[in-house]
Specification:
By secondary structure, this protein is an all-alpha fold. The protein is elongated and about 55 Å long.
């Protein structure tokens, strides 16, 4: 079960970290989100977002191999993913590239939920 949790968290971390390419290459942000980032201020904000998502993704991947970090990683991943999904779904009207991001985040949230369930089962079995 520990291996399954590690695999799930690694996948979640990888999904969260996908935007990190935008830190050094603003064109990667355009490819990922399907939006032309012509405003330098917006590029700064989106590159910063990429850094933060990269950090959360790295933390979640680290937690895959450090069971003591799993609960905080579950919280961080759930909040990061859930907040984006709530904002995107409540706003609506997003483009096809953002729809792909929404779908990836729905998958990541499902993987996170599965990891949480497995973690809870494994904790209950060890008592």
């Amino acid at each position: 079960m520990n291996l399954a949790i590690a695999v799930l968290l690694t996948l979640v971390g990888a999904i969260l970290a996908l935007p990190v390419a935008g830190v050094v290459d603003a064109a990667a942000l355009t490819r990922l989100y399907g939006i032309a980032f012509d405003d330098p201020d917006l590029v700064i904000l989106m590159r910063h977002r990429a850094v933060l998502l990269g950090l959360i993704g790295a933390f979640v991947i680290c937690a895959a191999f450090r069971p003591a970090l799993r609960v905080p990683a579950f919280v961080a991943a759930s909040v990061a993913i859930g907040a984006f999904l709530w904002i995107a779904l409540s706003a609506g009207g997003y483009n096809a590239a953002l729809r792909t991001v929404v779908i990836a985040d729905v998958v990541a949230l499902g993987l996170t939920a599965a990891a949480i369930v497995l973690h809870a089962i494994s904790r209950g079995a060890s008592r």
